[in-house]
Automatic annotation (TrEMBL):
This is ABC transporter ATP-binding protein. GO terms for molecular function: ATP binding; ATP hydrolysis activity. Gene3D superfamilies: P-loop containing nucleotide triphosphate hydrolases. Keywords: ATP-binding, Nucleotide-binding, Translocase, Transport. PROSITE patterns: ABC_TRANSPORTER_1, ABC_TRANSPORTER_2. Residues 9-257 form the ABC transporter domain. Part of the ABC transporter complex HmuTUV involved in hemin import. Responsible for energy coupling to the transport system.
């Protein structure tokens, strides 16, 4: 018998503003849920509110209005240590601590759940995650000597070692070459489908969830189950890639005219420009 649908995250009418009088809305009245086994892509132009929305979902920002539930319970009611076992966050850019090697930086993700694991198990887990992102052979290399793309993969490994069922990643493939970007998204999708919930959860058997901020339309169309398309802090579409990434929506949000290859959008011209 199949398990009933389960939402890891459920946001209702989320809003967030900045400014001296909180009069500049970065996110306005957004409602969405993130279901078990789902890869949700957050897309939109620069300044659309993507990173702000991701931080709201991860509890890094407190919404001015609206509510956010994590596993059916108000996010504010979770103790920080409990929450970090459920939610892992990969920032858009991160700082590598001075004097630490690759392996040590990756293992920082274990701090939230160190008491639950033996030291040898932690080492095995760290090695496995470094292997998954292609950095195991560089485990003892000084982390600050990595390239930009390698650092991005390291930050992903640091998030993966938590084994949190929900992963929030802000532009995880922006610095990667095409082959590495494909590998990382294949990895994230596979882990999302397969990852079980925590043993002490009442929803045992549900898969994890992954929320990605992306700029690449073709990768989003290929690897995301649903797309949340933002424009000026508002939700324009929340549906399958085919329904969200229509020519009209892309013209309205990005000001571009796409072409479609096997149903996948490819940015082709600026709106109003002469065809190539």
């Amino acid at each position: 018998m199949s398990l009933p649908a389960f939402s890891w995250l459920d946001g209702k009418e989320l809003s967030f503003s900045v400014g001296p009088r909180a009069d500049r809305a970065l996110v306005h009245d957004i409602s969405l849920s993130v279901e078990a086994g789902e890869v949700l892509g957050i897309l939109g132009p620069n300044g659309a509110g993507k990173s702000t929305l991701l931080k709201l979902l991860g509890g890094l920002l407190r919404p001015a209005e609206g509510t956010l539930m994590l596993a059916g319970r108000n996010l504010a009611d979770w103790r920080l240590r409990e929450r970090t076992r459920l939610l892992a966050y990969m920032p858009q850019s991160g700082t590598v601590p001075e004097g630490m090697c690759v392996e040590e930086v990756a293992s920082l993700g274990l701090l939230a759940c160190r008491s639950a694991r033996a030291r040898n198990t932690e080492a095995e887990l760290t090695a496995r995650c470094l292997s998954e992102v292609g950095l195991l052979t560089q485990a003892r290399q000084p982390a600050n000597t990595l390239s930009g793309g390698e650092k991005a993969r390291l930050f992903l490994a640091r998030a993966l070692v938590t084994e949190a069922p929900v992963l929030l990643a802000d532009e995880p493939v922006a610095a990667l070459d095409p082959a590495q970007a494909l590998h990382m998204l294949q990895l994230l999708r596979a882990r999302t489908r397969a990852r079980p919930m925590l043993p002490d959860s009442q929803k045992t058997g549900a898969a994890g969830s992954c929320v990605l901020v992306l700029h690449d339309l073709t990768l989003a169309a290929r690897f995301c189950d649903r797309i949340a398309l933002l424009h000026q802090g508002r939700l324009v579409a929340l549906s399958s890639p085919a329904s969200a990434l229509t020519a009209e929506n892309l013209r309205r949000v990005y000001g571009i005219l796409p072409r479609y290859v096997e149903g996948v959008p490819v940015p082709w011209n600026l709106d109003g420009s002469a065809p190539a």
